[in-house]
Amino acid sequence: MQSPEISSTDKRKLLSVLSHASVFFSVTLLAVGIPIGVWFTSDDPVVKDNAKEAINFHFNVWFWGAIIGGIVGILSFISFGLLGVLLAPVIGLGFLIHWGLTIWAIAHCLGKAEQPFRYPFIFRLL
Question: In angstroms, how far apart are the furthest CA atoms of the chain?
């Protein structure tokens, strides 16, 4: 019995979604290895662009997480924990934005496989 071939569109969708979905595991530094691996091994320009965009989003999540976490940590230390409790919704909002943008990217890749996704309002190192 012959195994069915995966179409180039399905492969594009799979690798693009895998690159963007790796951001859900961004608390581990190894998660960025998924889009890096896809970027270096794929020949498809759309997949490469999606992987590069996912890498840039990883950098942004880490950068803004460190900034916001540092500010909340310092203010919490200075106020003996009071401001940390009051600013907890800011951290929650950050997670909602992080997950919301990732879900948007995945939906875009599944719906418009021929067009790479671009995250709004991020800085791009690559």
Answer: 69
